[in-house]
Amino acid sequence: MLLTMKLSDIQHMLEQWAPPATAWKGDNVGLQVGSHNAGIVNILLALDVTMEVAKEAAQRRANLIITHHPLLFHPLRSLTSNSRTGEIALYLAEQKINLFAAHTNLDSAPGGVNFVLAELLGLKNVSVLSPLTDSMMKIVVFVPKEHLDRVAAAMHSAGAGAFTKYEECSFRTEGVGTFRGTHEANPFIGTKGILEIVPEIKLEMIVPSWKLSGVVSAMLNAHPYEEAAYDIIPLKNHAQNIGLGAIGDLPNIMTRDTFLSMTKRKVNTEVLRYSGRINRIQRVAVCGGAGSELIADAIQKGADAFVTADVKYHTFQDAERGILLVDAGHFETEHHVIPAIEHRVKKFLKESKSSSKVFVTKHKTNPVSYYY
Ligand SMILES: [Zn+2]
Questions:
Q1: Hey, what CATH class is 136-237 in?
Q2: pTM of this structure
């Protein structure tokens, strides 16, 4: 039997891939218009929601639009048809169409905007250009030996102890724990009022901040003690597989013109703007959309070229001596992520035995045109 999917189920799947906590602090991601409980008929994907996209959704019976750019970004003072944003938001609400946006969290996700762009340019050995900081924690818990495996398994299944290529990572040290239960206690081991000395294991794992509460709940559920002792320690380590931009190597060294020609063709843009005198390109950094803030990271990590968008005149000037700086267009460097979203959503719907269909908008939502 085919099932009707709830918006919250699709949201959960997308946020496992691109956690909202990894979005830029000033961003506005997630459900923008609608209800988490809505039953989803069909889904329409677009980089931006425009009035044409909203009408296409209505026509296709798609009551969920998933976009990269948030429609609601700056705080609204009124919701009227006098503004572009207001007109679209009102139409969506009237038509009961839900709108969900995955923006800078999708830029930072493995397999998101920047990894797709790196793959499009044929880069190898791709890694994150600017890994996310202040997001990693260590959780340390003291467990009686015979309950160690159960507690560790619960924490791993909630997402603790995972690196880029390794899972179920932990460190375990044997030691001795002491406690004396008060009159109000109901100790799992020993007797209240008597000092207990128990062999315990100190179990340590790393966990990203957005998974911490789930890991703590899973750990407490699996832990036998009435009051488990645990520490949560913020780390200065970077999240290696999450962050803005991507960097990798071309399979062969290219001249500047060959690289520009290849980039123009693969990104499928009508024009490139660039500065830089470098004529030997192998290591390439990318950041879809406005990525000028990452130029220093790209140079520091040895990139010969940096492909991004929305580059200003003086930014081109400053970068001239250090890197080949290429502006390949905002829409042009980002929209390639749509097939990646489509693939994930379709796979999820199929696994969930959902009858919903997924469409990609037929409208050109790039507001920029080129005149020759
Ligand atoms: Zn963008």
A1: alpha beta
A2: 0.88
